[in-house]
Amino acid sequence: MLNYEILGQIRVSGRPGVCAPRARKIETLLSVLLAKNNQVVTAEHLIGEIWGEHPPARASAALYVYVSQLRKLLRGNSKDAEESPVVTSPRGYSLHVGIDELDADRFTRLYEQGRTLHWDRSYGQAAKVLREATNLWRGPAFGGFTDSSDVQAYATLLEESRLGCLELLMETELLIGRHREVVGQLSALAKEHTLRETFTEYLMTALARSNRRAEALETFASARQNLVQQLGIEPGSSLRKLHHSILVGEMSDAV
């Protein structure tokens, strides 16, 4: 069984001698096949993703060589005669990825499980599962790889899911009273994602419930200034209501 890790710099493990590709074009090939895992990708499409609008005259032959090199890389030092996960078909190539062999699939499964537990109000279990999901991330998906439009599109989708998972995790942590414990992480998230008001709202909530009312109000002032300067808009109604609640000392226990 191979393990493909794309929630950070791309890595492959599971067999002796198996490692991530070092050659850029083989990395592009593997990244595209992982982004389209278990789907057939035509040779023409792969050529476009690898070389762009100006492929070499013998691009088809070069692609065949890269596929062979990728198969060898994924085989590692294994002496087994098992089939390669890179499958050739009349229409092109595909990468067979089994259940839980891709860390992005494990993340999605855990995120969905955590969301279900949250809806069932099993907040303690939900927080544990959601934290496990977010801990799978080691950095930007595919290590910030930008050579392929397919990879960029999949990475964008994964990043949006990661942020959604983090929002739900922070909400869940607040619901079980871990206000002080999440202030640091929320501060970093609010600073990194200045236009995502949910993180600011949760940070203000955590600060206010940690008897740090002045810092909560400063957080709102900073967020408001940023929104006005960047977009010319005021904070949303939810953030404004929370600000008023903290300002007049009517902070509720609700998130």
UniProtKB/TrEMBL annotation:
UniProt-listed SUPFAM superfamilies: C-terminal effector domain of the bipartite response regulators (SSF46894), TPR-like (SSF48452)
One Gene Ontology molecular-function label: DNA binding
Keyword annotations from UniProtKB, A to Z: DNA-binding, Transcription, Transcription regulation
Highest taxon, organism lineage: Bacteria
DNA-binding residues: 1-97
Stored Pfam families: BTAD (PF03704), Trans_reg_C (PF00486)
Residues annotated as domain OmpR/PhoB-type: 1-97
InterPro entries the UniProt entry points to: AfsR-DnrI-RedD_regulator, BTAD, OmpR/PhoB-type_DNA-bd, Sig_transdc_resp-reg_C-effctor, TPR-like_helical_dom_sf, WH-like_DNA-bd_sf
GO terms for biological process, alphabetical: phosphorelay signal transduction system; regulation of DNA-templated transcription
PROSITE patterns referenced in this protein's UniProt entry, alphabetically: OMPR_PHOB
PANTHER family linked to this entry: TRANSCRIPTIONAL REGULATOR REDD, TRANSCRIPTIONAL REGULATOR REDD-RELATED
Annotated family: Belongs to the AfsR/DnrI/RedD regulatory family.
Name of protein: AfsR/SARP family transcriptional regulator
Taxonomic source organism: Amycolatopsis echigonensis
